[in-house]
Write a structure and sequence with these properties.
3-stranded mixed beta sheet; 3-stranded antiparallel beta sheet; disordered C terminus
């Protein structure tokens, strides 16, 4: 079961050659079972909502991890914009794992 809390995406890793799936980095903590990404498609956008699965109560470190998640789409991405539901912004392209900080 995923939580009700949206988590920001770590970035877009890949769009499949046929445009019918996207791979993104979804973040999660050390006290859960991993990330989940849901999709809402419209004619002009693909909205990706990341959350965590199996969040556990109790003592937990504050480490944040990332995992590649591939999301299948009903229609090819084509000219639609990919949006992060958590931030409301376009999902940035990301090489993951990053070998240097993303800011410079």
């Amino acid at each position: 079961m995923s939580t009700n809390v949206l988590a920001p995406l770590g970035g877009l890793v890949k769009v499949a050659g046929n445009g019918r799936s996207v791979t993104v980095v979804a973040t999660h903590g050390s006290c859960d079972d991993g990330p989940a990404v849901d999709v809402l498609e419209t004619g002009g956008s693909v909205v990706l909502s990341a959350s965590v699965v199996g969040a556990k109560d109790g003592a937990c470190t504050s480490e944040l991890g990332g995992e590649k998640v591939t999301v299948k789409l009903g229609q090819p991405v084509a000219n639609r914009i990919l949006l992060d539901a958590s931030t409301g912004r376009p999902v940035p392209f990301s090489k993951w794992p990053q070998t240097s900080p993303g800011w410079s």
